[in-house]
Amino acid sequence: MLAQKKKEETEREFHQRVRDETKKKKMKNNNALLSSE
């Protein structure tokens, strides 16, 4: 039971990190677009 809970927590942290990375990439792309105009 405890191992299952830990696995779920790890997955949630992983998804959170992926979301953060995606947000950073989008911001970087937006900045690149803005600065190239």
Report on this model:
Residues 1-37 are annotated as: Disordered. Residues 1-23 have a biased composition (Basic and acidic residues). The protein is mainly alpha-helical. It is built from 1 helix and no strands. The protein has one helix at residues 2-36. The chain is rod-shaped, with a radius of gyration of 16 Å. The relative contact order is 0.09. The model has no long low-confidence stretch (mean pLDDT 89).
List keywords for this structure.
37 residues
Strand proportion: under 5%
Task: Report the end-to-end length measured between terminal Cα atoms.
Answer: 54 Å
Rg is 16 Å
Structural class: mainly alpha
Brief synopsis:
Residues 1-23 have a biased composition (Basic and acidic residues). Helices cover 95% and strands 0% of the residues.
